[in-house]
Amino acid sequence: MGTYKNRSILIYALPITLALVSLGCGLSGMLGGAGSASLEPTPTRTPMPTFTPTPAVVAVLDPAAAQDGVISDGQSVEPPAEVADEPPTATPTLVVPVETVAPTDTPVPEARVTILQNMNVRSGPGTGYPVVGSGSVGQSSKIVGRNSDNSWVQVEYPSSDGTGWVFSDLVQIDGDPNIVGVVAVAPPPAPTAAPEPTAPPEPEEPPPPPEPQYQFTPTGWHASENAAIVHFKGRIRDESGNLVNGYSVLVDNWSWSVVSHPTGASNHYPEKGDGEWDVVIPKENIGGGVGWWWLTVVRYDCPDFLSRFDAQCKQFTRLSEDVKIMVNWPDETVINADWVCHWDCDKGLYVQGFRR
After folding, report:
1. What is the C-alpha separation between 302 and 128, in angstroms, rounded?
2. Contacts with 356 (C-beta within 8 Å, 6 or more apart), sequence order
3. Complete domains list, the chain, with CATH
4. CA distance 356 to 354
5. What is the pLDDT of residues 47-78, one digit of tens each?
């Protein structure tokens, strides 16, 4: 009983004792803080690292028994043996062999041109550069360069350096020309200055016509037909176109000859017009008068012309060359032979024709 009472008293006295101790501590803290000029901040505790125990067999130990090395079930507790540190065992790495694959050839991109019309190929990108050759419709070549705006492209071409330039608007471009670089080209050569124009030479006066070798020359000859006769006729004029009187024409086939009455009218033939002459040969005479004949202007020199005229006279002076002509029967039997007088046109037998 006495022990139980003592325990009861102890049980009731213990809370009171604890309350008094707590009160004393609180008063001492308050009294100690009152004399301080300022409160010091309470240091913040550094949190302890969290320890995760290794899972093991857990035994509930009695503190008192653990001090004697006895577990609660009465068995002895041996301190654990110290284990030497061992290096960690390396985890094996699985090595997978990699199959080596041979690289495949990748085609190198390129651009090409096809010529659409016949064109010049030049040594540089512009019409100021010299022409190195030509390209024909349908020809194709690889692009190896370009200028900055792609208006001209450089292609493979059999020139001195193996390239040439073509105008992009005249070709078809297959591919992207920008895959090749811009080619720097020296400026084209400066054009050669045109020579200073020189004054045209003064026109030279045409040389004068050569002096005629003969006083009379033929002009205006033609033939017509008359099946009944062979007829030679014509007119004589001066260089101004004036009709000339007083000169005859010799008609000769080198076997027979006749002299025409002097041009213009005379007392023998008053019906003749100024400048007119003629000779008529009937076809029954001398074989019809066909064949070759020679005509020549002459001055009639037989004497006593006013008394009579002799057509067979052999006295005359030749004043022109002998002109050869063919008489063809029946198509060319009328021969018209005109002449022009160059000087001494007023020295004939008479100037004015005879008029009744």
Report:
1. 87
2. 270
3. 112-179 (2.30.30.40), 216-341 (2.60.40.10)
4. 7
5. 555 445 544 444 443 444 444 444 344 444 45
